[in-house]
Structures are given as C-alpha cells and as structure tokens.
Amino acid sequence: MAKYASACPQPLVLRIACLKFAVMPGFLDTPVEFLKGVGPQRADALKTELGIQSIGDLLMHYPARHEDRSRIYKIAELGKADAGVQVSGVITHIDLIGAGPGRRFVANIKDETGNLQLVWFQGIPWVAKSVKPGDRYLAFGRLNDYKGRISMAHPELESNAQAIAPKGLVPVYPLTDGMRRKKLENRFMVQMVQTIFNDPRFDVPENLPPALLKEFQLLDRKTALRQLHSPSDLKSLEKAQHRLKFEELFYLQLRHLQLKTNRNRTIKGLVFSEVGDHFNTFYKEFLPFELTDAQKNVLREIRADMRTGRQMNRLLQGDVGSGKTIVALLSMLLAVDNGYQACVMAPTEILAAQHHLSLSEMLEGMNIKPVLLTGSTTKKTRKAILENLKSGEIPFLIGTHALIEQDVEFKNLGLVVIDEQHRFGVAQRARLASKSSTPPHILVMTATPIPRTLAMTVYGDLDVSVIDRLPGGRKPIITAARHHSTRPLIMDFLKKEIAAGRQVYYVFPLIEDSDKLELQSLMSGYDMVTEFLPTPDFKYSIVHGRLKPDEKENEMHKFRNGLTDIMIATTVIEVGVNVPNATVMVIENAERFGLAQLHQLRGRVGRGGNQSYCVLVAGGKLSENGKKRLDTMVRTTDGFEISKVDLELRGPGEMDGTRQSGLLELKLADIRYDENLLVLARNKAEDLLNDDPLLMKPEHFGVRQELAKTPHRTVWSKIA
Ligand code: ADP
Ligand code: MG
Prior knowledge:
By secondary structure, this protein is an alpha/beta fold. The chain contains 25 helices and 21 strands.
C-alpha cells in the first residue's frame, strides 16, 4: 500500500482518492524473473536489452512478424524463394568441410522427393554434437541459391516426433544482438510467452470502453494478446492486430488530448486582450503586402487563442514561401501591445540572422528594434542584452539555442515563436516556456509541411493552423532532373539568367561528419563551376559549415545585396535564406538528398516575381528510391504532397523530429497505412474525454487504469 501512496504527497483524504487511481498489482505485474525458465540472469538480460521487467511487459513485446509454418514443403518443389520455408526429412549424412573462415558444417536432409543441404558457419561444435544422422528433423530457414544449387543456411532444427507436425503461424520477436549472444533466441521468447498463457492466473484486464468494443466489434484484450502471440489462423491474427493497433493509437491520442486538457485546466494563460498601437500602426502603414486569406485566417485563430486566458500551443503548418514569418511578426506585435516581450528561436545562426534581418527590415519606421542573440554574440554585447532583457527594454529577441541558456532572463516573456521546430527537442521547448512564471504562448512553425497523420502523432497535443495557399502572383518553379553529362547546357542556361540580372544557387551535398571532406568537395565543385563560369566575370559567394558565423554572414550579405552572382554552398543555406532575385537552384548529386531537403532548397528560389528554375543534377545508376524522389520533385511543387511521399519512402521512424515523439511507442500501427484507424482513434478519444473528462464513469475504469501506467517502451535502438 505504502508503495502506491508515496506517489501522492497530498493529505490523507486526497491520498485515499488517489489510491483509487493506483493500479493494483496483478499477475501481469509480476517480475519476469519469477516466470518458470527465466531466473535472475535472464531477467536481467530482458531488462537491459529490451526494457522488459514484468510479465505484462513481455506480453507487450509484440512479434515483429509471423512465419507461416503451416506448410511443409517437399524438397523437390523448393524454388529459389528466399522466404522462410520448412522441410521435413531424415538427416542422411553430416560433414565438416574446409578450414579457417571458410570452415562449415553441412548436413544432408532427405525426404521422399529429394535432398537439401543444410549449412552452418557458426556454432559448429554445438551443431555437430546435436545433429544425429538417421533421425528425422523439421528444418526451417531461408534458402540460398549458390550457382543454381539450393541450400539452407543456419536452419532452425527440431527433432522430436511432435515437432514434425506443422505449427501454423509462429511469432518472430524483435531481439537484440546482446540477447543472441546470451543464447536468448526467438525460441526462448516463444516459450516464455507460452508459459504465461498456460499459467492459471493468466488474465488481462480490458482497457477499452465496452461501448467501443461493441461498436467496432473488436476482440477483447485477452483474446487479442493470445492471438497475436499465438494465432490460430491468419484471420484471427489480423483481428488481433486490428484491435491492438486501435488500442495503441487510441491511447496515443488520449495521452495527447489529456496533456492538452490538463494544460488548459491547470495553466492560466496570459490574456492578450488588446489590439493596440503597434499592431494597428504596422498593419496600416508598414505591411509590405496584402495578407492572403489563408494568412488572415491563421492570424484570427492565433488571436482567438491569445484572448481566452488559455495558453496557446499552436502548430503553424505552411509550405515553403507561404508567408509564415509575417504571421509570426504580427503575433509578436500583439504581445508588445499587451505589455509583453516576444522571442523567436531558430535552429541555426544563419536562420536566426536571417530572421533578425527580415524582421528588422519590416519593422523599420516603427520604434521596435529586434535584438539578435546567438552563440557568437560577444561577451560584452551579450551582457548588455541580458540586462536590457531583464529590465524589459528589449521587446523582441531573436536567437538560437543561446536563448535557452540559464542566465537568459526576461522581464515578462509573453510569446515564443519556434521556427523549424523539428530540430528542437521537446525538452528545449519546455525550458524556453519555463522562462516566465506564467508560461508564454507558444507558436511552433514547421519548415516544410508534414503529413496530417504525422502531425497528429507527433504534435497531437498542439492545435494546428494551416496556411494552405501561397501568396498570389507566384509563378510555379520549373523543375528538371538532368544527367550530369548535360552540364555544359546547364551552365549556358545559368549564363543567360545571370546576364538577365538574376542570381544562382549552386548546391553540393553535405558530407556527414567530415568538415574537411566537405570543404574539399565544395572546393572541387567550385573549380568545376568556374571552368564554365570563370572569375572575375562571374562573382561568387561560398558558404559552408567550416566558416565562422561572421564570415558566413559576410558571404550571405554579398549575395543578398547582389554583389555576387553565384552562391556555391552546402545545405547550410537550406532554410530561411531569402533572396528574391535568385531564380535558379542547381543541386548536384541531387539523388543524395532527402525529399524534405530538396523541397526546402528549391524553396530558396521563386521568391520574387521572376520565373524560377530548379535543376536536379544526377548521374550513374539511381536507386529505386532516389529515382522516386527526383520524379516527385519534378512532378509537383506542393509541399504537402511531397511530405506524403517522403513519409511513404522513409517510414515514420526516420522523419525529422520523431525521435522524441510518441511514434516510438507505435509497435503495430504504421501511420502510412493506418490513417483511417488513426483518425478514428482520435475522434473516439475526443468523444470519450468530452463525455467523461475525468474518466469517472465505471465503464471507463479500465481506461483510467491504463492511463495511470507509463507506457512500456521497447528499446528499439538496440534491436537488430
Ligand atoms: P515561409 O513560410 O517559408 O517562412 P516567408 O515568410 O519567408 O515564407 O515568406 C516568403 C516570401 O513571401 C517572403 O519574401 C515574403 O515577404 C513574401 N510574402 C509573404 N506573405 C506575402 C503576401 N501575402 N503577399 C506577397 N508576398 C508575401
Ligand atoms: Mg520561414
């Protein structure tokens, strides 16, 4: 009892109320080491390798896939299929062949239709001891085809009579190398799970509301878990997966929504009731263009949030060039009108400097001067900034991570704008929010759109606004993929554009983890380009990761002011750079870039009134995936469309920003294919909380219990 009460530091009466919420220990909470066949050492391995501590955790460690063992193949009918197959026969003879690394143990298995060679390269002494010629075996494994001769390497072998019967769908569990080294293989996992199912105490409480089970005819949880780990047939397996997928999406959404409602209940947000002088003056006199309807709508949503007395937590989605910056600026002016400071946090110094510059330009004529604070701000300037920030003299602060350092104190921070959010961790967001006694409003802006399903999963606790139209008068960027042998033609084209007064970006791939190699490749790229477009007729800016921030800024400055024609760069220019006169973006080795990156890079052009172009240069053999990326870029300029293809190609785990998100909890559902189920789960979770916000109804007891647990996380990073 005391164990549960200790989590609740309230007085006794409250504590009793709290106890009702505590999850009572049951069979599933039993530590795995008490399971027959586990013991302290194996329990330790399960814990350190897979994060499995209790019997319940073991059941929540879902199979990654199932192998169909319902069929035994005749050796004569084996093709080159490399999927797992099983054969049944007698081992006729065994042999040890070769020496050194080529040493292998082979066994010939024979059924009534033919012979198959089984091969082992590792664990030979053990195999040699256990394989008995003359005995009958069931061998399961993948087939190798070596010069037309089929063999099976490292098969799973079972010898005794009952194993000869087909076993249907066998679960294959995700395992780590560490477990394999300890000889804790799939078979061990299968046995443990069977031991659990055979225990008379085995029971699983239901955690979905009965009404939902009924409405969608979902399997109950106990049956679903049994069928997932040990399916009676394919159909039951699918039903089990469906139910458990729904469950995991439902809880993911429920946790997001709970976070959101709890925040609204417990945090008193700052009330920005005034639309004052700063906003109005800017809007009437300094707005450089008419806002699009999409921008106006989003601004209305933001203003509504800020008035209510709740803390705004809003995600602003919009394509590259859709005009998110002005929306941020107007929101910041609202903060100032209500007596608060505002800040913008950007992921790189270049981007922070760019924001600082464009905000300063737009605010020219107003009595507001944004201040820039980055890692390379000098000590002296920094000291002055910190003082003026604390006294409230600085209304707008723009910066990088430097903003979240401990000694940065605001007088009254009212709004935090986080640009290109995917590069910031959740913890950093929280730290910034904590810089004020009352948490400031938060506006998160994505660099490129992310698919709706991903937004719901990763940012499910935020409200979402979308700018769905680009400002009018833009000519769509013309994109072409070209073989590198056509480079002379590309260069001629650049010459023409430059002669017409335009500027050009020329981008080379970033070389991961090696500034030195990157510089080399950039410099040889520069040499290559200058052969066609020689200096001093053509003037160059060069930007790469090795430059100091002020050198970088200097190069950018020259390009921005038209002093140079061509900017040679790595992806450091990917985000935020805004030079409307630049009309061509050439990307070398374009096949090496991800879709989000290509789209961001392309977004650097097409920002002025002139027709703009993007040339994707690639050569050699393209991978299927690389080809699809280039085709997609040529086919569309719609960032939402591109992000969908990106998600399909890369998979949810590889998308930016997913590391710290709930996505890691998804073991069965895949947001690429389960969109409908995800939306359903979200709607049902919303309905549930609307109907019973505190989950006090008896039929929601199971839900309340489930939410009280911390979700079990598999240590996916280790799994091979
Ligand atoms: P992003 O959403 O990629 O951050 P920006 O805010 O940088 O886009 O805007 C891209 C360009 O479009 C900028 O040059 C900006 O001045 C311009 N712009 C933004 N909104 C409008 C508008 N309503 N009408 C015309 N131009 C606009
Ligand atoms: Mg931007």
